Amino acid sequence: MSQSISVSWSTIEAAAPQAPVQPDQLSNYDLILRCQEGIRPDRIAFAELLRRYQSHVDKVLYHLAPDWQDRADLAQEVWIRVYRNIKRLHEPVKFKGWLSRIASNLFYDELRKRKRIARPLSLDAPLRLEDGEMDWEIASNQANPQEDMTTREFYEQLREAISALPEVFRTTIVLREIEGMAYEEIAQITGVSLGTVKSRIARARARLQSQLQNYLDT
Asked: What is the pLDDT of residue 121?
């Protein structure tokens, strides 16, 4: 005599293989969690994360270095750093701010490195002009207040002024003025009070305005 077996629908559902969720169907939070699993970040999940935030990285680097020709190389280095350090991100909901800090810190590291390796001008070394003639006159690097500032010159002075700020002011002003983050969000990212954030932004703006006043007047 055969014995009947009762099987519930829930049992069938549990036994049936579940289709894997595709990375493009995951939330940003879940993508980060998946990248934090295992020894190395999941390549497919990380590629999707890169696709979603690549334009954000490009935007940050463009505002910091609008005339640098190697911004694509900097962006690639940003994602290398993200890949190596994403497991250290304890709060995935703050990924965007963390990513912005990596991009801005990389820019300032590169800016300091370029200043160190810049070759000094020699008063004894002749300069060759486009027409082949030689000229020993070296133009002054001091801006003439009566001359019109081009956009490139202004951005160069702005980058130098920002890079000269103390690190706490520099990070805060970039997150506020370049990233457009709210004061509350900046306070969470930097781990300081809302009043401290407002104070740092005000002081950073005052320093920048003081250093760039000649260019702003013209």
From this structure: 41
Q: How many angstroms separate the CA atoms of 156 and 161, rounded? A: 9
Look up residue 106 and give its amino acid.
L
**According to the CATH classification, is domain 150-218 in 1.10.10.10?**
yes
How many alpha carbons fall within 13 Å on the CB side of residue 162? Answer: 25
**Residue 192, CA distances (Å) to 95, 163, 170 in order:** 18, 21, 15
Helices and strands in the chain: count of H runs, count of E runs:
9, 2
What is the structure's pLDDT at 34? 92
- 181-to-82, 128, 168 alpha-carbon distances in Å: 21, 47, 16
pLDDT number for residue 19: 52
Task: For the chain, give every domain's residue range.
Answer: 22-118, 150-218
CATH match for 22-118 among 3.30.300.70, 1.10.1740.10, 3.20.20.150, 3.40.250.10: 1.10.1740.10
**Global pTM?**
0.54
CA dist 46 → 80, 86, 188 (Å): 11, 10, 25
Report whether 89 contacts 98 (CB < 8 A): yes
